[in-house]
Amino acid sequence: MREQLITETLETNYMPYAISVIVSRAIPEIDGFKPSHRKLLYTMYKMGLLNGGRTKSANIVGQTMRLNPHGDGPIYETMVRLSQGNGALLNPFVDSKGNFGKVFSRDMAYAASRYTEAKLTALCKEIFGDIDKDAVDFTDNYDGTTKEPLLLPTAFPNILTSANLGIAVGMASNICGFNLTEVCEATIAFLKNPNCDLLDTLKAPDFTTGGELLYDREQLQTIYNTGRGSFKVRAKWKYIKAQNIIEVYEIPYTTTIEAIQDKIAELVKNGKIRDISDCRDEIGLSGFKLAIDLKRGSDPDAVMRKLFRMTPLQDSFGANFNILVSGMPKVMGIREILSEWTAWRVECVRRRVYTELTAKKDRLHLLRGLGKILLDIDKAIRVIRETDSDAEVVPNLMIEFGIDEIQANYVAEIKLRNINREYILKQTKDTGELAEQIADLEDIVNDKNRVKAIITKELKDIAKKYGTPRHTEIIAAVDIEDDTDTADEAEDYPVTLFLSKEGYFKKITPLSLRLSGEHKYKDDDSLSQEIELSNRAELLFFTDKCQVYKTRASDFTDSKASLLGDYIPSKLGFDPEERVIYMAATIDYSGDVYFFFANGKAARVPLNSYETKTNRKKLANAYSDKSPLVSMCHLTSEAEFVLFSSDNRAMIFGSAMLTPKSTRDTQGVQTFTAKAKRTVAAAKLLETAGINEPGRYRAKSLPSAGANSNEQLTL
User: Of 507, 504, 562, which Cα lies nearest the Cα of 531?
Assistant: First the structure.
C-alpha cells in the first residue's frame, strides 16, 4: 500500500469538498440566495406558481429534485424557512398555507409536505421579472436535462433584506435582515452619492420577531464599514398589575421561547432568581406571549433587568457579511455590498434592455422588407405564382425586391388573405415609431446614468408596493445601560475567591470550603490570590496586554475546591495569547491600585478610575505600557512596600509617598534613583517580605538609592 502525505490527502480529498460547501451550499451570492433557495424558487416559477393558485408542498418538493438532488427533507426545510408562515424572513418568498412552524420556537414542528400548500408571493415578481429577458446566465442542471439560472435578477438588494446564516468549511456567514423600505432608500442614496452616510437612511437591522435594538452608532458603523461586529437586541414586555404577571410579547431573533424558559427555570432552580413563581408559553392566535408570574411584592423592573442580564431575553447578534462574489467568498461592509449589487444590477438591466433592443431591431428589419413589398404587391404575387419550385420562392423574392433571406422568408410566410394593401400598411405604419424606440434603447445601453435612473425608479416602486414599517424598535443603548445597575441585585452572601497563576477562578462558600479538601490545579499551576468578600463584589482582571476585564462574582456559579474552576481568558473573551496577571475585588471601588514597573517607576491609581457608568466589560490602557510591569496590588489603606533592584539593593517606602493619579495609564514617579542598567526585580508588601532590619532600607524621600541588601526576600 502506497504511503500518502497528509498534504496530498487534503489537496485531493478534502479541498474539493471544502470548496464545494463554500461555493455551492452555505454562502449566499450577491442576489441574496443560496443555491438551494434559488433552485426551489425557480422551480416554483416554472410551475406557474407566481400567478396561479397554491399546490401541495410535496408536489413542489418533487419537482425541485430535478435541480436539487439532495433529498426531499432539505428541500422542504428550505421552503419552510422562505415561507410566510414560518416568519424567518421580513419579506418571505413563499405564500404558505398550513403549519410551517415558527422561527421563535424550536419545538413547534412544521407539518409534513403532504399536508401544506404553497405558491410564490407577489414580491417574487420583482425577482423573476427579467428572468426570460436574458438578464442572467443559465447553466445545465446536475444531469444535463434542463437549465437553471446561476443567479436570480432581483430588482432590489435582497442580500440585505433577507436574513441568512450559513456555516461552511473554515468560514461562515451571518447576515442580518434590514427593512425593505430603508434598503431601497439607502440604495437610491448610494446611487446618487457613493459617499453618502448610509446610517441616515439604513438606520439599523430589522427582525421579524421585533424586540428593541440597543442602538450604538459606533458599533453599527463598524459593521457597516467592515461587515463584522455585533449589536444587542432585547425583548419587549409589559406588566399586568392586576395579575402580577410580566408578559413578554417580542423576543430577539437569535433565540427561542424554549431557550428562554429553560434558562429562567435553571436560574430559579439555582436560587439566582427568587421573584418568579412560574413561567408559561402562551403562544396563541393572537401571537407570541411568554407569561412570567411574579411573587407578591416583587419589582417587575428589577426582575426584568436581571432577566435581561442573565437570559437570552437580551441577546447579541454577531454579524458576518460573508458573500460570494464571482465565486469567491468575501467579507464586505454595507457600502461595498451596495457597490457590488449595483454593478451587477446595472449589467442585468443592460442585458434586459439589449434583449428588447435586439427584438425591436429584428422586427424593424422585417417590416422594412414588408414595406418594399408594398411598392408592388402584384409583382410579389406574380413572382411566387410563376416560380416552379418551392425552394426558389425565397431567392426569387430576394432578387426581385432587393431584400435579404430573413425578410424574404417573412414575406413568403404571409397568408394569402393578408396579401393586401390594408394589412401591409397596418403592419408597416409603426416603422418610424419603432426606429425611435430602438434609438432610445441604444442610448440606454450606452448610458450608465440612464440605467441607474431605471434602477432608482424600480426601487421606488418596490418600496411603495411592498414596504412595511419596522418590526424592531430602535432605542438608545446608553439610556438602557445607564439605568441598569445590577450590582445590588445579586444575592448577598460571603464567598472566598481564588485565582490561580494560569488564570483559573473559583468562588467557594464558607461551608463548602470547610468541607473541602485540597485545591485541584493543573500541572505546574498553583494559587496566586485568595480574597474573602461578598457575592456582590465586582471583579477586575488585569492582563499582560495592559487591559482590564470587568465582571461580577455573581456571574460565576459557586464552585468546589476539587474542581479546576472557570478559565478566565475563555470566560471573559480575552484576546489571543492574553493572560491574567492580577485580580482586584471590590464592593464600592474604594482604595487604590499600585503598579511597580521595571524602569523603577511606581504609580498609584484610585480604583474608582476603573468604575464606569455603563456596563462596559473591557477597558484598554488599564496601566502604562512604557516599561514592563513587575508587580501590582490593590489596597484600601496605607501600607509600606519593599522594592528590590537588579543590582541587589532594597528600599522601603510608604504608599503615602505616592500621589494618586486619575489617569489610568500614568507612568508614575521614580522610586529608585535612576542608574544605568538598574531595574526593579521585585516588589512586595513589607509585612509579607520577611525583612529583618526595615529601618536600614527605609527611604525618606523618592527617588532613593536604597541600601545594599544581604537579605533574601520571600518571593
Answer: 507
Under the banding of pLDDT at 50, 70 and 90, the label for residue 423 is confident
Q: What is the pLDDT of residue 481?
A: 46
Cell numbers 413568403: residue: 412
Q: What's the CATH number where 605 sits? A: 2.120.10.90
Question: Does residue 131 belong to any structural domain of this protein?
Answer: yes
Q: What is the DSSP letter of 704?
A: B
The domain boundary, picked from 154, 181, 201, lies at 154
Provide Rg for the chain, Cα atoms: 37
Rounded-to-integer distance, Cα 478 and Cα 64, Å = 49
Q: Is residue 484 over pLDDT 50? A: no
Note the pLDDT tens digit of each residue in 610-654. Answer: 987 666 688 999 999 999 999 999 999 999 999 999 888 899 999
Shared domain for 307 and 346, answered yes or no, is: no
Strand 228-234 relative to strand 245-250, pairing: unpaired
pLDDT of residue 573: 85
Instruction: Specify if 194 maps to a domain.
Output: no
Strands 548-552 and 147-149: unpaired
Model-level pTM?
0.70
CA dist., res. 695 & res. 571, Å (int): 45
- 425 and 404 in contact (C-beta within 8 Å)? no
- Are the beta carbons of 630 and 596 closer than 8 angstroms? yes
Alpha-carbon gap, residue 279 to 276, rounded angstroms: 8
For residue 365, what are the domain limits? 341-465
C-alpha 126, offset from chain centre: 26
Cell numbers for 588, please give them. 464600592
Which of 45, 38, 36 shows the shortest CA–CA distance to 69? Answer: 36
Q: What is 409-442 written as a DSSP string?
A: HHHHTS-GGG-SHHHHHHHHTTHHHHHHHHHHHH
The helix/strand/coil state of 181 is: helix
Q: Report the C-alpha gap between 557 and 535 in whole angstroms.
A: 10
Question: Which residues carry out catalysis?
Answer: 115
User: Measured in whole angstroms, how far is the alpha carbon of residue 588 from the centre of its chain?
Assistant: 37
Q: pLDDT tens digits for 39-97? A: 999 999 999 999 989 999 999 999 999 999 988 999 999 999 999 999 999 999 999 99
Q: List Cβ neighbours of 672 (8 Å cut-off, separation of 6 or more).
A: 600, 643, 645, 649, 651, 678, 680, 703, 704, 705, 706
Do residues 438 and 558 share a domain? no
